[in-house]
């Protein structure tokens, strides 16, 4: 009986203990549900843009102005983790968020010494204070104790450590191990030297007093203490981290990624040296009045290596990224029109096309300078960017068919009126596209006509393969050969470059596009607000900028064989001088009108149209002569000449070095019925 009564008493006590434990657990769960930790700060991250090689190109702080990145312990070098646990929380692996031994020791030291000698805070308690900052009071300390238990309850040891690694202060507005490692050392914390690890462990103890850009010696002394306390060997050479000006080498790319919700780090396809060089080049180049220059470069693998949207110039509305802004392409889409016609088989490079006055209803287009060349080949018509032949080719294809074909290639032509029907004005820029879309289309010229999206994120999975062609390999080869025959812009000497320019109506947008087999480059010039700029042309403004970019990207042309077998008595210096002299004596060439051209003009002087005069090469400025008489060119205006009747005309141009070029053309009366 006594044994049975004792058993019952033990059972009752066990039941009461279980009930109490269950009540405590239920109460803790209820409190955890009613008072969850505020995770807003740990979910607000910065964005850091890296180049292909890991170089930091640009960055943007989180919404609260902090450099903070999500961090997990598996992303951090074990050396750092070992130092952190040895110096901050030795019993982290077994305590539930608070360390009774450390708290007891800290309390005893406080009683015996009258002040705090060592703290009893665990990493969980520090994470709690970092998650929900508060004044250092006894009430705050109690809150840290309870919140530390809650964090361990919710997230366990690993999750709590991750919170600490994400939020720990590392000087200034830098929080977390990843942000500090990237901004101080230029690399992720997966691989840290003992010195780097010690610096990052010591900094959070006094983030203001140890800030590396203000108090480097104090930080180094504290880091030495960390290594000594952890009984680690002291490194012979200490790194000297700084928080100098953060680079802003790709602001438009950063804004694009931020606007698309990207945070954390983005390992891009940008080439750091190329991005900085071309951005500096565009900064030095003189942009259109109140305007800017933009450039996009993609390599043969469809990876974007340079993205400059135009914000480097101080102009109204320069905050607009002109790589992504839809604008009228002018003549820049003409190669796509010819490519479709070449693909259809009814057009070849030698097909004769008519360039004369025409009217389609109320639409009466004309060429640049209001001139007409009569009959010419398709190749020559595209190289000279003649308008009438391009319209005739588009008329044969069908404007709606052309629009739909580009849409299948991923490029949607934006018409002035979304409900409007595509017209022949598409050949002359009566629509809007972006620089990124044009580079995508021109890249297909070096990929047998296959169109593929451009890639910016180096770590993203490759896009699904596309079998979309704007033209067949045969047609694309013909198109490439035609565009390689286009004369380069003034002051440019290159080889094997397929080149095209475009100018929108009224001189609002100037374009220059090129493919080299290895690179595809696009340049835009103009005013972001769409205001017309007098004298703005693709060849005159965007073309020379593109030429300088191609010169940076393209290796020097090989020395001709006839020069490679120079006499043995000609030393290297003399050969170099001779080559330089040959490169600098190349004179100008007349681009428009071409030698031998037959141009139509009105026989009535009152209705005659001026003929534009355009040259390339040599050393500008140019002086023009028509039949030996100088042509007067007002400042800021393009050279032009008004014919005084039909017949043969001799035109010459002279550059600043006195070198010249000549062309003979024939003027004939236009058909008065057109």
From TrEMBL:
Residues 64-229 form the Glycosyl transferase family domain. It holds the Pfam family Transpeptidase. Residues 583-666 form the Penicillin-binding C-terminal domain. The keyword Protease applies. GO terms for molecular function: carboxypeptidase activity; penicillin binding; peptidoglycan glycosyltransferase activity. Pathway: Cell wall biogenesis; peptidoglycan biosynthesis. GO terms for cellular component: outer membrane-bounded periplasmic space. It catalyses: [GlcNAc-(1->4)-Mur2Ac(oyl-L-Ala-gamma-D-Glu-L-Lys-D-Ala-D-Ala)](n)-di-trans,octa-cis-undecaprenyl diphosphate + beta-D-GlcNAc-(1->4)-Mur2Ac(oyl-L-Ala-gamma-D-Glu-L-Lys-D-Ala-D-Ala)-di-trans,octa-cis-undecaprenyl diphosphate = [GlcNAc-(1->4)-Mur2Ac(oyl-L-Ala-gamma-D-Glu-L-Lys-D-Ala-D-Ala)](n+1)-di-trans,octa-cis-undecaprenyl diphosphate + di-trans,octa-cis-undecaprenyl diphosphate + H(+). One of its GO terms (biological process) is proteolysis. Its EC number is 2.4.99.28. Residues 294-522 form the Penicillin-binding protein transpeptidase domain. InterPro entries: Beta-lactam/transpept-like, Glyco_trans_51, Glycosyltr_51/Transpeptidase, Lysozyme-like_dom_sf, PBP_C, PBP_transglycosylase, PCN-bd_Tpept. Keywords: Carboxypeptidase, Glycosyltransferase, Hydrolase, Multifunctional enzyme, Protease, Transferase. It is an enzyme of class 2 (transferase). In the C-terminal section; belongs to the transpeptidase family. This is peptidoglycan glycosyltransferase. It comes from Acetobacter vaccinii. The lineage of its organism: Bacteria, Pseudomonadati, Pseudomonadota, Alphaproteobacteria, Acetobacterales.
């Amino acid at each position: 009986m006594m044994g049975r009564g004792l058993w019952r008493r033990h059972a009752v006590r066990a039941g009461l203990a279980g009930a109490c434990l269950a009540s405590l657990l239920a109460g803790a769960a209820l409190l955890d549900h009613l008072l969850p930790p505020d995770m807003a700060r740990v979910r607000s991250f910065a964005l850091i843009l890296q180049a292909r090689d890991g170089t930091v190109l640009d960055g943007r702080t989180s919404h609260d102005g902090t450099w903070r990145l999500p961090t997990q312990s598996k992303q951090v070098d074990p050396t750092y983790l070992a130092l952190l646990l040895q110096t901050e929380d030795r019993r982290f692996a077994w305590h539930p968020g608070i360390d009774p031994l450390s708290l007891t020791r800290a309390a005893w030291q406080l009683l015996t010494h009258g002040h705090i000698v060592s703290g009893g805070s665990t990493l969980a308690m520090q994470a709690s204070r970092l998650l929900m900052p508060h004044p250092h009071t006894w009430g705050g300390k109690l809150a840290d104790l309870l919140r530390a238990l809650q964090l361990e309850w919710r997230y366990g040891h690993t999750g709590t450590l991750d919170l600490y690694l994400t939020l720990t202060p590392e000087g200034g507005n830098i929080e977390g191990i990843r942000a500090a490692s990237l901004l101080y050392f230029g690399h992720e914390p997966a691989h840290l030297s003992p010195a780097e690890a010690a610096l990052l462990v010591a900094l959070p103890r006094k983030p203001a007093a140890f800030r590396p850009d203000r108090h480097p010696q104090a930080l180094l002394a504290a880091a030495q203490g960390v290594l000594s306390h952890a009984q680690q060997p002291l490194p012979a050479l200490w790194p000297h981290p700084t928080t100098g000006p953060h680079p802003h080498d790709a602001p438009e790319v950063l804004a694009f990624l931020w606007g698309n919700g990207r945070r954390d780090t983005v390992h891009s396809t940008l080439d750091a040296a190329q991005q900085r060089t071309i951005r500096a080049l565009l900064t030095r180049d003189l942009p259109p009045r109140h305007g800017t220059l933009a450039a996009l470069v993609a390599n043969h693998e469809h990876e974007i290596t340079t993205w400059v949207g135009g914000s480097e110039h101080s102009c109204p509305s320069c905050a607009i990224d002109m790589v992504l802004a839809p604008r009228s392409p002018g003549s820049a889409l003409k190669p796509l029109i010819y490519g479709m016609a070449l693909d259809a088989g009814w057009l070849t490079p030698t097909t004769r096309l008519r360039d004369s006055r025409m009217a389609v209803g109320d639409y009466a287009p004309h060429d640049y300078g209001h001139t007409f060349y009569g009959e010419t080949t398709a190749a020559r018509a595209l190289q000279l960017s003649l308008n009438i032949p391009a319209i005739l080719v588009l008329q044969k294809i069908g404007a709606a068919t052309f629009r739909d074909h580009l849409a299948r290639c991923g490029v949607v032509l934006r018409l002035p009126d979304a409900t409007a029907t595509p017209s022949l004005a598409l050949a002359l820029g009566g629509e809007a596209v972006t620089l990124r879309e044009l580079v995508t289309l021109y890249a297909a010229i070096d990929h047998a006509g296959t169109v593929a999206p451009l890639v910016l994120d180096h770590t993203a999975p490759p896009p699904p393969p596309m079998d979309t062609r704007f033209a067949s390999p045969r047609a694309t080869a013909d198109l490439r050969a035609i565009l390689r025959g286009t004369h380069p812009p003034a002051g440019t000497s290159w080889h094997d470059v397929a080149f095209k320019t475009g100018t929108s109506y009224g001189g609002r947008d100037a374009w220059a596009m090129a493919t080299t087999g290895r690179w595809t480059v696009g340049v835009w010039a103009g005013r972001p607000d769409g205001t017309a700029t007098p004298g703005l042309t693709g060849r005159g403004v965007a073309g020379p900028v593109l030429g300088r970019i191609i010169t940076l990207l393209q290796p020097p042309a090989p020395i001709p064989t006839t020069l490679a077998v120079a006499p043995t008595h000609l030393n290297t210096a003399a050969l170099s001088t001779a080559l330089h002299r040959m490169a600098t004596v190349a004179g100008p060439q007349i681009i428009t009108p071409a030698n031998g051209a037959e141009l139509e003009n009105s026989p009535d002087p009152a209705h005659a149209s001026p003929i534009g005069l355009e040259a390339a090469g040599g050393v500008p400025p140019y002086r023009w002569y028509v039949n030996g008489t100088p042509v007067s060119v007002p400042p800021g205006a393009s050279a032009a000449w008004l014919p005084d009747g039909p017949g043969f005309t001799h035109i010459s141009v002279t550059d600043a070095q006195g070198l010249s070029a000549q062309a003979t053309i024939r003027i004939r009366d236009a058909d008065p019925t057109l």
